[in-house]
UniProtKB/TrEMBL annotation:
<feature type="domain" description="Helicase ATP-binding">
    <location>
        <begin position="134"/>
        <end position="308"/>
    </location>
</feature>
<dbReference type="GO" id="GO:0005524">
    <property type="term" value="F:ATP binding"/>
</dbReference>
<dbReference type="GO" id="GO:0004386">
    <property type="term" value="F:helicase activity"/>
</dbReference>
<dbReference type="InterPro" id="IPR011545">
    <property type="entry name" value="DEAD/DEAH_box_helicase_dom"/>
</dbReference>
<keyword id="KW-0347">Helicase</keyword>
<keyword id="KW-0067">ATP-binding</keyword>
<keyword id="KW-0547">Nucleotide-binding</keyword>
<feature type="domain" description="Helicase C-terminal">
    <location>
        <begin position="335"/>
        <end position="483"/>
    </location>
</feature>
<dbReference type="InterPro" id="IPR027417">
    <property type="entry name" value="P-loop_NTPase"/>
</dbReference>
<dbReference type="InterPro" id="IPR001650">
    <property type="entry name" value="Helicase_C-like"/>
</dbReference>
<dbReference type="InterPro" id="IPR014001">
    <property type="entry name" value="Helicase_ATP-bd"/>
</dbReference>
<dbReference type="Pfam" id="PF00271">
    <property type="entry name" value="Helicase_C"/>
</dbReference>
<dbReference type="Pfam" id="PF00270">
    <property type="entry name" value="DEAD"/>
</dbReference>
<dbReference type="GO" id="GO:0016787">
    <property type="term" value="F:hydrolase activity"/>
</dbReference>
<protein>
    <submittedName>
        <fullName>Probable ATP-dependent RNA helicase DDX28</fullName>
    </submittedName>
</protein>
<keyword id="KW-0378">Hydrolase</keyword>
<dbReference type="GO" id="GO:0003676">
    <property type="term" value="F:nucleic acid binding"/>
</dbReference>
Length: 495
């Protein structure tokens, strides 16, 4: 028998050569995927939080990683073809509590009739976030309210505004509101108006909705109304106030609801006009994401603006079951039918483009499954009709783009399906916020189809945030517009 001795340098050279060959033939990443080592983690095996197909990657609540160690993710190898069929599930735990305790509305100086109206819609006390928000707005300071979707931000700004309006002198001038609530879409405008009417009805508070669609008609045939609160979209209010139909010089409270959307590149010009026209008003920004930097038009307010921020802001939902499934695009239609064929629960299916939204609704209908659909490319009247059909329960399934993810109250929804998984963290947080809201069913769930590289990248960010117990990073509601506009600019400039 021959015995051959190798030096350390020979062994290292052989290993390096083998590694180069594996990389050359595309096998190195597959080897890494299948030989993933268990994470270096201090484990507390009491509450399973992330359940993985590869059980060695399971994660338990309260477990911690060493700061300098790489965290082994279930989704680590999902860029590779061998990962098809892999999955992991977030097991729901009790709802994340905000710091501190809630408070009775009566202790906040809220009128008894408003409290009774809240009780009629099963809202009995303010959460800790709402308590801080209400008291801050009541002090009359410019305010930024930032909290995760579904935690009652609308109550937080409407209550003190209505309370202050009923305590102030009546405005005798027509079409001169005391408060303006600006929202990015018509669905949210009508929803906010409805809620404001519920709270203000006992006092005769007049609330008017101002949205696009009939702007030219309204300019030619102006109506004069006794109005206390206007809920409006930017374009319509900008035009109607420009021609003097609505007088904004007496506005005391100016709210930008879904501020991250209103301050992005799609609305900023019209919003800037309105901010200048209501410079005397108390400015209230309301958002589910906290902007890293306020735009220049808000520079005069920034130093005087107080922030009320939820401790759960930008955190992935842990009180709702989420399943992340690594599949191919060709697998999605069959998987979709499996989830919807016998579905009897209110469900929203999100896609990234209006073409996909329309196709998905048509595909389900062709397979005998009732489905409504809404997207920003639809005629407004049809969009409202489709939305109301879903809200009234005439169909259990709604196909939607992100127009259905911002601010709309969907407490009846029990299942979210991201057929197209978003590629931006802000869109992800808004979508999943359609379930797990105040008053929502406790057995809600979210299903995510993961197919492409950008989708995998976001999933890895989400999984890492959960394992590290930290907020998602780079949550900027304006990033979509910025990237889109940069691409268009380069196309126009040419090579």
């Amino acid at each position: 028998m021959w015995c051959i001795l190798f030096s350390n340098s020979d062994v290292m050279a052989s290993i390096a050569l083998g590694k180069r060959l594996l990389k050359k033939y595309g096998l190195w990443d597959n080897l890494l995927y299948y030989s993933t080592t268990a994470p270096k983690i201090k484990t507390n095996k009491n509450t399973l939080l992330i359940s993985c197909k590869q059980k060695k990657l399971d994660y338990y609540l309260g477990s911690t990683y060493n700061k300098l160690d790489e965290v082994s993710l279930a989704s680590k190898g999902w860029l590779h073809s061998k990962s098809k069929g892999d999955y992991f599930t977030i097991i729901p735990i009790s709802k994340q509590e905000d710091e501190g305790e809630g408070c009775l509305f009566s202790n906040l100086g809220i009128n008894k009739l408003i409290i009774d109206a809240l009780k009629n819609i099963k809202i009995k006390e303010a959460t800790s976030f709402q308590t801080k928000a209400i008291t801050t707005v009541q002090r009359g300071v410019h305010t930024l309210l930032a909290a995760e979707t579904g935690c009652g931000k609308t109550i937080a700004f409407l209550l003190p505004i209505i309370q202050n309006i009923i305590n102030s002198e009546r405005n005798e001038q027509l079409n001169a509101p005391k408060a303006v609530v600006l929202v990015p879409n018509r669905e949210l405008a009508f929803q906010t108006t409805e809620f404001a009417n519920i709270l203000g009805a006992p006092f005769g508070i007049k609330v008017k909705t101002v949205t696009g669609g009939r702007t030219k008609y309204n300019m030619m045939n102006p109506q004069l109304n006794d109005v206390d609160i206007i809920v409006a979209t930017p374009g319509a209010l900008s035009k109607l106030s420009t021609v003097g139909i609505y007088k904004l010089n007496q506005v005391l409270y100016f709210v930008l609801d879904e501020a991250d959307t209103l301050l992005d590149d799609g609305f900023i010009d019209r919003v800037e006009v309105l901010i200048k026209r209501m410079s005397q008003a108390q400015l209230i920004l309301v958002s589910a994401t906290l902007p890293r930097k306020l735009p220049d038009i808000l520079a005069p307010y920034e130093s005087r603006m107080e922030q009320v921020v939820s401790p759960n802001l930008h955190m992935p939902l842990l009180h709702v079951k989420q399943k992340f499934m690594r599949i191919t695009k060709s697998d999605r239609p069959a998987r979709l039918l499996q989830l919807t064929k016998f579905n009897k629960e209110p469900m929203i299916i999100f896609t990234n483009k209006h073409q996909n939204c329309n196709w998905l609704a048509m595909f389900l209908r062709e397979n005998g499954i009732s489905c409504a659909n809404i997207n920003g490319d639809m005629n407004y009247a049809i969009r409202i009709e489709q939305w109301n059909k879903f809200i009234r329960g005439e169909t259990n399934i709604l196909s939607a783009t992100d127009v259905g993810s911002r601010g709309l109250n969907t407490i009846q929804v029990k299942h979210i399906l991201n057929y197209d998984f978003p590629i931006y963290a802000a869109d992800y947080l808004h979508r999943i916020g359609r379930v797990g809201r105040l008053g929502s069913p406790h057995d809600s769930k979210i299903t995510n189809f993961i197919c492409s590289e950008p989708e995998v990248n976001l999933v890895q960010q989400i999984e890492l945030a959960i394992r590290r117990n930290v907020p998602l990073t780079n949550v900027d509601g304006n990033i979509t517009k910025i990237v889109h506009n940069n691409i268009l600019r380069k196309i126009r400039q040419g090579p």
